[in-house]
Amino acid sequence: MRGGPRADGTTRLSVDAGQSSIRVRRSDPHGTHISVLPGIRADRPATPQLVGVVRDALASAPPTTRTISVAVGASGFDEDPAAAADLLSVEPTLTSARIAHDSVTGYLGANAEEHGVVAAVGTGVVVLGCGTAGLARVDGWGYLLGDAGGAYWIGRAGLDAALRAVDGRGLATSLTASATAAFGALPLVPLALQADPRRVERVAAFARSVTAAAEDDAVAAGIVMTAARELAGSIAAALRMSGMPKTQARVSANGKVVEAEALRRALATELSEDGVVLQPPLGEPIDGVDRLHDLPSSHPLQRVVSTADRVAV
Fold first, then answer.
1. CA gap 278, 250 in Å, rounded
2. Average pLDDT, integer, range 187-191
3. What confidence tens digit (pLDDT) does each residue in 223-237 have?
4. Bridge partners of 127?
5. Residue 10 class from Cβ within 10 Å (0-12 exposed, 13-18 middle, 19+ buried)?
């Protein structure tokens, strides 16, 4: 973990804001403090939600007379140039603000500043390549149109398989019982989910049941293998567009979904067939947010980071 007591008397606030949860890490002279909050709502603008998170985090921090910097990695962030200034305006003691899409901070967490590709696989999916040809962002089109291989994609496929089994259109699967336990009587699930403001989060959570069942259920195993192929295809596209040879690129994946052994094993197999080695991430996404505070101005990722600094008077 990069965070620790700040010997220089400063405070750093790092926020990893995903759709499933938000992690806040505050490092100050007293130590490192971590809190976990509900995730970013995909049906609402991201920046106002992040402003509220930063405001609450600073309100709970001990008083300080020294520099406070904030860095944020956010799902759904669209490179709004005013976003960092909005964060900076939260509190007069803030001296700098950095905000980027969580694919950027996920990249920094997994690969640090090395060139390569990182697949950020959470509720959604964004694959980011960084190489000699520049940056390449693949997928991240949201749960309705893309995010292939992510938790929502897997969870929805699992529910679809359960409903197909009930209809007699698909093979019998243990996912039918798992879906009933998670959502209730299956005939009532479609309407109940449409009315649920947390429907994306709930469907994504079902991915855990699918990946767990993949060890001994053929239907679940097929879903996981297809998810791995989707992710491997996105990684291959990112390698190609960022100009990185397979043998020189550091390729990694992070997120709760790929921590599931079945999916990580399937992804490693798919990549190896294309001559790519899946490397373990160097750290967590929140570590990548920490690295955002000190990202060199010459790094290619800087062009997709919104920054604001308070001018000393």
1. 8
2. 88
3. 999 999 999 999 999
4. 119, 138
5. middle
- Label each residue of the chain as H, E or C: CCCCCCCCCCEEEEEEECCCEEEEEEEECCEEEEEEEECCCCCCCHHHHHHHHHHHHHHCCCCCCCCEEEEEEECCCCCCCCHHHHHHCCCCCEEEEEEEEHHHHHHHHHHCCCCEEEEEECCCEEEEEEECCEEEEEECCCCCCCCCCCHHHHHHHHHHHHHHHHHCCCCCCCHHHHHHHHHCCHHHHHHHHHCCCCHHHHHHHCHHHHHHHCCCCHHHHHHHHHHHHHHHHHHHHHHHHHCCCCCCCEEEEECCHHHCHHHHHHHHHHHHCCCCCEECCCCCHHHHHHHHCCCCCCCHHHHHCEEEECCCC
CB atoms within 10 A of CB 73: 32
Specify whether the CB–CB gap between 73 and 288 falls below 8 A.
yes
Say how many C-beta atoms besides its own lie within 10 A of residue 225's C-beta: 17
- Rounded Cα gap, residues 313 and 29, in angstroms: 25
Determine the 3-state secondary structure of 85 from DSSP.
helix
Rounded Cα gap, residues 183 and 303, in angstroms:
43
Structure tokens at 79: 């490179």
Q: What is the pTM of this model?
A: 0.79
Side-chain half-sphere CA neighbours of 48 within 13 A: 5
Least confident range from 26-35, 179-188, 220-229: namely 26-35
Q: Name beta bridge partners: 125.
A: 121
Question: Using alpha carbons only, what angle is made at residue 73 by residues 293 and 22, rounded to the nearest 5 degrees?
Answer: 120
What are 92's two structure tokens? 């007069």
